Amino acid sequence: MQFRSLAGLMLGGLCLAATALAQTAWKPSERINYIIGVAPGGTVDLYARAIKDSLERLKLTGGEPVIVENKVGAGGALAMNALRAGQGNAHYLGTFHTGAIAGAVTGLIKADPREFMPVAMLVEETSVVAVRADSPLRSGTDLVAALKADPTALRIAVAPALGQNIHMAIAKPLHVAGVAIDKLTIAPFRSSGESVTALIGGHVDVVSATAPVVLPQVANGKLRILASAAPVPGSGPLAGVKTWREQGVPADYVSYNGVTLPPGVHAEQIRFWEEALRKVSQDPQWRALVEKSGNQPIFRGYVESHRYMMSEWDAAAELARTLGLKGGR
């Protein structure tokens, strides 16, 4: 009798615990607001809109719509401030990108990405260095030799500003190769589209940009890629492009693109979006879009994304100091 009573109490307790757990499991109950901190047309915007499409097409938001808003300005700080205003509300999503970390470290972005919750990284972005097809430079080692002889000899285009990830992606391997990177002639443009156009027009000599912006101009014979900052050789449209490491420079620089949540969200909200975005990462349409752009689809959840953000902050601060930029905040 006592055993049956005890068993009944235990069973009742388990049922109550299960009911409580079900009640605390979070899911969207209103529209999702996806805030993008860049103008339409770039890769950050491209991937965010593709994530939105996958979330809706795969029915991962419980029937709630995902509304995209491009909130541009202050290097991405306006978007981060808008996301912060939704503190504790997981119906708000934002873009998580390496560029925001680098921009905050150097003081370009007056906001701190460490306040937010990077719930998933979905794209590993490859940055490349390219020249016009008629340039005498034919490899990364040619570029290093020219800049060792005279660091000011070539005008190098980056975007959207000094100290962000596109700038870091060329500065890091050149620094490792022995180039005086604080003496380089760097020309910042508002977007990589503009910097590539300037290269084609002969206004600059070299461009650092993400692969999706450069590859179409390589395909039509206007540009040639000298080196990839990826840690391993690429595939698809980047097959045959040599990495810096393959050219004797032991350095790489990888950018990541994903999704972040506002400050103050709780574990169940993080868990919901982590699982939803894991399913997006497995979607064949999503993977095909990323691969076609020359980048690598991946999935890293909250723990790995948060760990990456903190380590990248320290690495970016150190590189910024080498460049003579503000760093180490």
Short description, anyone?
By secondary structure, this protein is α/β, with parallel strands linked by helices. The chain has helices at 2-24, 43-57, 77-84, 98-105, 140-149, 165-176, 192-200, 211-219, 267-281, 284-292, 302-323, and strands at 32-36, 66-70, 92-97, 117-132, 155-158, 185-188, 206-210, 223-228, 254-261, 296-300.
Describe this protein's structure:
This protein is of the alpha/beta class and 329 residues long. The chain has 2 domains: 32-125 and 255-323, D-Maltodextrin-Binding Protein, domain 2, CATH 3.40.190.150; 126-247, D-Maltodextrin-Binding Protein, domain 2 (3-Layer(aba) Sandwich). 43% of the residues lie in helices and 19% in strands. The chain has helices at 2-24, 43-57, 77-84, 98-105, 140-149, 165-176, 192-200, 211-219, 267-281, 284-292, 302-323; strands spanning 32-36, 66-70, 92-97, 117-132, 155-158, 185-188, 206-210, 223-228, 254-261, 296-300. Strands 1, 2, 3, 4, 5, 6, 7, 8, 9 and 10 form a 10-stranded mixed β-sheet that branches. α2 packs antiparallel against α10 (284-292) and α4 (98-105) crosses α11.
